[in-house]
Protein backbone atom coordinates (compact mmCIF):
# COMPACT_ATOMS: atom_id res chain seq x y z
CA UNK A 1 0.00 0.00 0.00
CA UNK A 2 1.37 3.44 -0.89
CA UNK A 3 2.15 6.06 1.80
CA UNK A 4 -0.77 8.05 0.43
CA UNK A 5 -3.24 5.23 1.02
CA UNK A 6 -1.67 4.34 4.34
CA UNK A 7 -2.12 7.91 5.50
CA UNK A 8 -5.73 7.96 4.42
CA UNK A 9 -6.37 4.72 6.29
CA UNK A 10 -4.33 5.28 9.40
CA UNK A 11 -5.36 8.87 9.97
CA UNK A 12 -8.82 7.49 10.68
CA UNK A 13 -7.55 7.44 14.26
CA UNK A 14 -9.74 9.86 16.17
CA UNK A 15 -8.77 11.54 19.42
CA UNK A 16 -11.59 13.46 21.04
CA UNK A 17 -11.57 15.83 23.97
CA UNK A 18 -14.09 14.61 26.52
CA UNK A 19 -16.13 16.85 28.72
CA UNK A 20 -13.60 16.79 31.56
CA UNK A 21 -10.72 17.60 29.22
CA UNK A 22 -9.38 14.05 29.11
CA UNK A 23 -8.36 12.49 25.82
CA UNK A 24 -9.72 9.22 24.50
CA UNK A 25 -8.49 7.34 21.43
CA UNK A 26 -9.88 4.52 19.37
CA UNK A 27 -8.56 2.43 16.44
CA UNK A 28 -4.85 1.51 16.42
CA UNK A 29 -2.64 4.42 17.44
CA UNK A 30 0.44 2.22 16.87
CA UNK A 31 2.79 3.69 19.51
CA UNK A 32 5.01 0.65 18.96
CA UNK A 33 4.09 -2.92 19.77
CA UNK A 34 1.28 -2.09 22.16
CA UNK A 35 -2.01 -3.86 21.27
CA UNK A 36 -4.96 -2.05 19.80
CA UNK A 37 -7.88 -1.01 21.96
CA UNK A 38 -11.32 -1.88 20.62
CA UNK A 39 -13.00 0.58 22.97
CA UNK A 40 -11.83 4.17 23.58
CA UNK A 41 -8.99 4.17 26.07
CA UNK A 42 -7.76 6.99 28.23
CA UNK A 43 -4.67 8.27 26.41
CA UNK A 44 -2.74 9.60 29.38
CA UNK A 45 -4.06 9.36 32.89
CA UNK A 46 -1.16 11.30 34.43
CA UNK A 47 -1.23 14.09 31.86
CA UNK A 48 -2.91 17.47 32.40
CA UNK A 49 -6.35 18.25 31.06
CA UNK A 50 -6.49 18.85 27.32
CA UNK A 51 -8.62 21.19 25.23
CA UNK A 52 -7.86 19.88 21.72
CA UNK A 53 -6.23 16.81 20.15
CA UNK A 54 -4.94 15.84 16.71
CA UNK A 55 -4.03 12.42 15.30
CA UNK A 56 -1.34 11.84 12.68
CA UNK A 57 -0.21 8.70 10.85
CA UNK A 58 0.95 6.83 13.95
CA UNK A 59 1.43 9.57 16.50
CA UNK A 60 -0.95 11.83 18.38
CA UNK A 61 -0.67 15.25 20.02
CA UNK A 62 -2.81 17.44 22.24
CA UNK A 63 -2.80 20.94 23.70
CA UNK A 64 -3.38 21.29 27.41
CA UNK A 65 -5.66 23.84 29.02
CA UNK A 66 -2.47 25.77 29.76
CA UNK A 67 -1.66 25.74 26.00
CA UNK A 68 1.33 23.41 26.37
CA UNK A 69 1.82 20.75 23.70
CA UNK A 70 2.08 17.01 24.42
CA UNK A 71 2.67 14.15 21.97
CA UNK A 72 2.91 10.35 22.07
CA UNK A 73 3.36 7.40 19.70
CA UNK A 74 5.92 6.83 16.96
CA UNK A 75 8.91 9.16 17.02
CA UNK A 76 11.17 7.78 14.30
CA UNK A 77 11.35 11.18 12.57
CA UNK A 78 11.24 13.34 15.71
CA UNK A 79 7.52 14.07 15.25
CA UNK A 80 6.95 14.16 19.03
CA UNK A 81 9.24 17.17 19.48
CA UNK A 82 11.16 15.60 22.38
CA UNK A 83 14.72 16.29 21.09
CA UNK A 84 15.14 12.57 20.34
CA UNK A 85 13.60 9.73 18.34
CA UNK A 86 12.39 7.56 21.21
CA UNK A 87 8.81 6.28 21.08
CA UNK A 88 6.49 7.43 23.85
CA UNK A 89 3.54 5.41 25.14
CA UNK A 90 2.05 8.24 27.21
CA UNK A 91 1.59 11.96 26.64
CA UNK A 92 5.03 13.61 26.75
CA UNK A 93 5.68 17.37 26.77
CA UNK A 94 6.98 18.90 23.56
CA UNK A 95 10.30 20.50 24.43
CA UNK A 96 10.72 24.25 24.53
CA UNK A 97 7.75 25.28 26.67
CA UNK A 98 6.01 27.03 23.77
CA UNK A 99 2.35 27.97 24.20
CA UNK A 100 0.20 26.77 21.31
CA UNK A 101 -3.21 27.94 20.15
CA UNK A 102 -3.66 25.16 17.58
CA UNK A 103 -1.65 22.30 16.09
CA UNK A 104 -1.84 19.55 13.50
CA UNK A 105 -0.19 16.12 13.43
CA UNK A 106 0.77 14.95 9.95
CA UNK A 107 2.24 11.75 8.56
CA UNK A 108 5.75 12.09 10.00
CA UNK A 109 5.70 15.58 11.45
CA UNK A 110 3.74 18.00 13.60
CA UNK A 111 3.16 21.75 13.31
CA UNK A 112 1.58 24.31 15.62
CA UNK A 113 0.75 28.00 15.88
CA UNK A 114 1.70 29.69 19.14
CA UNK A 115 -0.18 32.32 21.08
CA UNK A 116 2.08 35.00 19.56
CA UNK A 117 1.24 33.87 16.00
CA UNK A 118 4.45 32.03 15.22
CA UNK A 119 4.42 28.71 13.34
CA UNK A 120 6.66 25.86 14.47
CA UNK A 121 7.15 22.40 12.97
CA UNK A 122 9.06 19.30 14.05
CA UNK A 123 9.70 15.86 12.59
CA UNK A 124 10.32 15.26 8.88
CA UNK A 125 10.03 18.58 7.08
CA UNK A 126 11.18 18.18 3.49
CA UNK A 127 13.09 19.70 1.82
CA UNK A 128 14.63 21.09 5.03
CA UNK A 129 15.41 17.77 6.70
CA UNK A 130 14.37 16.17 9.99
CA UNK A 131 13.93 18.20 13.17
CA UNK A 132 13.55 16.61 16.61
CA UNK A 133 12.59 19.91 18.22
CA UNK A 134 10.18 22.71 17.25
CA UNK A 135 11.64 25.09 14.68
CA UNK A 136 10.23 28.31 13.29
CA UNK A 137 8.67 27.91 9.87
CA UNK A 138 9.38 31.54 8.95
CA UNK A 139 11.15 34.36 10.78
CA UNK A 140 8.90 37.10 9.43
CA UNK A 141 5.47 35.61 8.76
CA UNK A 142 2.82 35.21 11.44
CA UNK A 143 0.19 32.45 11.42
CA UNK A 144 -3.07 32.03 13.33
CA UNK A 145 -3.76 28.51 12.01
CA UNK A 146 -1.50 25.80 10.59
CA UNK A 147 -1.84 22.40 8.96
CA UNK A 148 0.63 19.77 7.78
CA UNK A 149 0.27 16.97 5.25
CA UNK A 150 2.63 14.27 4.01
CA UNK A 151 5.56 16.58 3.24
CA UNK A 152 4.08 20.05 3.07
CA UNK A 153 2.90 22.74 5.48
CA UNK A 154 0.32 25.49 5.05
CA UNK A 155 -0.87 28.27 7.31
CA UNK A 156 -3.10 31.32 7.43
CA UNK A 157 -1.80 34.73 8.51
CA UNK A 158 -3.73 37.15 10.75
CA UNK A 159 -4.66 39.00 7.54
CA UNK A 160 -6.22 35.86 6.07
CA UNK A 161 -3.52 35.08 3.49
CA UNK A 162 -2.50 31.46 2.89
CA UNK A 163 1.16 30.40 2.67
CA UNK A 164 2.64 26.95 2.06
CA UNK A 165 6.08 25.33 2.01
CA UNK A 166 7.62 21.89 1.42
CA UNK A 167 7.12 19.28 -1.29
CA UNK A 168 5.22 20.50 -4.34
CA UNK A 169 5.30 17.61 -6.82
CA UNK A 170 1.55 17.84 -7.40
CA UNK A 171 1.12 21.57 -6.93
CA UNK A 172 -0.07 21.13 -3.34
CA UNK A 173 1.54 24.43 -2.31
CA UNK A 174 -0.86 26.36 -4.56
CA UNK A 175 1.76 28.76 -5.93
CA UNK A 176 1.13 27.80 -9.56
CA UNK A 177 4.23 25.62 -9.85
CA UNK A 178 5.46 22.15 -8.98
CA UNK A 179 8.74 23.39 -7.46
CA UNK A 180 9.54 22.34 -3.88
CA UNK A 181 9.86 25.30 -1.50
CA UNK A 182 12.13 25.48 1.54
CA UNK A 183 10.45 28.72 2.65
CA UNK A 184 6.77 29.58 2.85
CA UNK A 185 5.34 31.04 -0.36
CA UNK A 186 1.95 32.70 -0.86
CA UNK A 187 -0.89 30.71 -2.38
CA UNK A 188 -1.64 32.19 -5.80
CA UNK A 189 -4.43 34.70 -6.17
CA UNK A 190 -5.85 37.50 -4.07
CA UNK A 191 -8.34 35.54 -1.96
CA UNK A 192 -8.38 35.60 1.81
CA UNK A 193 -8.94 32.36 3.68
CA UNK A 194 -10.30 31.63 7.14
CA UNK A 195 -9.29 27.95 7.44
CA UNK A 196 -7.00 25.53 5.61
CA UNK A 197 -6.31 21.80 5.64
CA UNK A 198 -3.65 19.64 3.98
CA UNK A 199 -3.65 15.99 3.00
CA UNK A 200 -0.91 13.88 1.39
CA UNK A 201 -0.67 15.71 -1.93
CA UNK A 202 -3.49 18.24 -2.02
CA UNK A 203 -4.75 21.19 0.01
CA UNK A 204 -8.17 22.75 0.58
CA UNK A 205 -9.18 26.05 2.18
CA UNK A 206 -12.33 27.99 2.99
CA UNK A 207 -12.80 31.73 2.35
CA UNK A 208 -14.56 34.16 4.72
CA UNK A 209 -17.51 33.91 2.33
CA UNK A 210 -17.72 30.14 2.94
CA UNK A 211 -16.40 29.09 -0.49
CA UNK A 212 -14.11 26.04 -0.60
CA UNK A 213 -11.07 25.93 -2.91
CA UNK A 214 -8.66 23.03 -3.47
CA UNK A 215 -5.37 22.51 -5.31
CA UNK A 216 -2.80 19.77 -5.89
CA UNK A 217 -3.26 16.11 -6.80
CA UNK A 218 -6.63 15.22 -8.30
CA UNK A 219 -6.17 11.51 -9.07
CA UNK A 220 -9.39 10.59 -7.28
CA UNK A 221 -11.38 13.77 -7.89
CA UNK A 222 -10.45 15.14 -4.46
CA UNK A 223 -10.35 18.74 -5.74
CA UNK A 224 -14.11 18.65 -6.20
CA UNK A 225 -14.37 20.26 -9.66
CA UNK A 226 -16.27 17.40 -11.24
CA UNK A 227 -13.57 15.14 -12.67
CA UNK A 228 -10.02 13.88 -12.22
CA UNK A 229 -6.80 15.48 -13.41
CA UNK A 230 -6.09 19.13 -14.16
CA UNK A 231 -5.18 20.12 -10.64
CA UNK A 232 -1.41 20.32 -10.40
CA UNK A 233 -0.96 24.07 -10.90
CA UNK A 234 -4.49 25.42 -10.56
CA UNK A 235 -6.77 26.39 -7.68
CA UNK A 236 -10.27 25.03 -8.16
CA UNK A 237 -13.53 26.12 -6.62
CA UNK A 238 -14.94 23.14 -4.77
CA UNK A 239 -18.47 21.83 -4.30
CA UNK A 240 -21.21 24.54 -4.31
CA UNK A 241 -22.67 24.64 -0.75
CA UNK A 242 -21.20 27.19 1.68
CA UNK A 243 -18.71 25.83 4.21
CA UNK A 244 -17.51 26.92 7.63
CA UNK A 245 -14.57 24.49 7.79
CA UNK A 246 -12.96 21.77 5.72
CA UNK A 247 -10.82 18.70 6.45
CA UNK A 248 -8.80 17.21 3.63
CA UNK A 249 -6.76 14.74 5.66
CA UNK A 250 -9.47 13.18 7.80
CA UNK A 251 -7.15 12.92 10.77
CA UNK A 252 -7.63 16.06 12.85
CA UNK A 253 -10.45 17.64 14.74
CA UNK A 254 -12.07 20.71 13.15
CA UNK A 255 -11.29 22.73 16.28
CA UNK A 256 -7.59 22.21 15.70
CA UNK A 257 -7.92 23.74 12.23
CA UNK A 258 -9.87 26.88 13.13
CA UNK A 259 -8.11 30.22 13.63
CA UNK A 260 -8.60 30.97 17.29
CA UNK A 261 -9.40 34.64 16.72
CA UNK A 262 -12.22 33.91 14.28
CA UNK A 263 -15.78 34.60 15.49
CA UNK A 264 -18.08 31.60 15.78
CA UNK A 265 -18.38 30.07 12.32
CA UNK A 266 -21.73 30.51 10.63
CA UNK A 267 -23.26 29.35 7.37
CA UNK A 268 -23.59 32.47 5.19
CA UNK A 269 -25.50 32.21 1.92
CA UNK A 270 -23.29 34.49 -0.15
CA UNK A 271 -19.71 35.56 -0.52
CA UNK A 272 -16.54 34.74 -2.38
Describe this structure in words.
This protein is mainly beta and 272 residues long. It has one domain: Regulator of chromosome condensation 1/beta-lactamase-inhibitor protein II (Methylamine Dehydrogenase, Chain H). 3% of the residues lie in helices and 37% in strands. The chain is built from 1 helix and 19 strands. The strands form 5 sheets. The chain has a 4-stranded antiparallel beta sheet, with no helix packed on it. Strands 8-9-10-11 form a 4-stranded antiparallel beta sheet, with no helix packed on it. Strand 8 and strand 9 form a beta hairpin. The chain is globular, with a radius of gyration of 17 Å.
Shape: globular
Return the domain count.
Answer: 1
Whole-angstrom Rg:
17 Å
Main sheet makeup: 4 strands, antiparallel
Question: Could you state the order of secondary-structure elements as H and E?
Answer: HEEEEEEEEEEEEEEEEEEE
- Helix proportion of residues, in percent? under 10%
Give the name of the CATH architecture: 7 Propeller
| Assembly state (oligomeric) | single chain
Overall mean confidence score, pLDDT: 79
Report strand %: 35-45%
Which class best fits the helix and strand makeup? mainly beta
Stretches where pLDDT is under 50 for at least 5 consecutive residues are: 1-22, 26-34, 249-272
Cα distance spanning the termini: 39 Å
Strand order of the largest sheet: 4-5-6-7
Give the full name of the CATH homologous superfamily.
Regulator of chromosome condensation 1/beta-lactamase-inhibitor protein II
Can you tell me the CATH topology?
A: Methylamine Dehydrogenase, Chain H
The total of beta strands comes to 19
What is the CATH class name?
Mainly Beta
Q: Number of helix segments? A: 1
Amino acid sequence: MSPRHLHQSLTAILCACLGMGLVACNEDNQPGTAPSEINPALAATAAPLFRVATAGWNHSCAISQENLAYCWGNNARGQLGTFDRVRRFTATPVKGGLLFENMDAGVRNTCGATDDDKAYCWGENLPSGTWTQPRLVDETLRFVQVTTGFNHFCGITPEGKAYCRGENTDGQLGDGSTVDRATAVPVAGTRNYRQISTSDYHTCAVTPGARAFCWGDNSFGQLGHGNTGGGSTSIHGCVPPPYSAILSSGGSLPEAHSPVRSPPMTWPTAGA
